[in-house]
């Protein structure tokens, strides 16, 4: 029997989500790292987000319910848990969803085995400012294309140009987020978060006629504008690029 599309309909959707990578089964260390990080200005950007837990590097289960409860204190919801199949029963027995991701931490896991060293207690979210926590797009077969938005993006809106550049003709308000696998162009005030080269393109750039963001990121390297960071490009037409592992802020010659 066919579904009545006037009532409901099933359609494919591409979602952006954050991935929390675990490299230790020491729950006390995980708890301390998470509490410390999520209380910082960087960590507060994640409050209210949906995430996937990537536990592929673990070979022993942890108390999944405690970790989920800990994240819930910061209004962070867990969509599912990705790990090796050996830990799948413990995840399902705890009542959580076992999922698979195209970009896993398998490389990290293999390196730990070959070195014969125990992984250091670490949560991937707890990084320096050069190691970001940014949305990692889930791959799809959708054709690559550029995306043009001809309006203001308001707080709470999130736009993703998969496989191409994103052009916004209008302001990007504080609290809005724009993401592109390629370059980002904002012909207006960039006041929200901008993530270019979301799938690792180090040649991607961010162009704007007025730079005043809360965060910018290129290929996984980011800069948080929290009052401590100063640049002559702030409040002006500017281009943001990546040189090695450092973001560069330069005037945009119109």
From TrEMBL:
It holds the Pfam family MinC_N. Residues 108-117 have a biased composition (Polar residues). One of its GO terms (biological process) is cell morphogenesis. Transmembrane segments: none annotated. The keyword Cell division applies. SUPFAM superfamilies: Cell-division inhibitor MinC, C-terminal domain. It comes from the Bacteria. Belongs to the MinC family. This is Probable septum site-determining protein MinC.
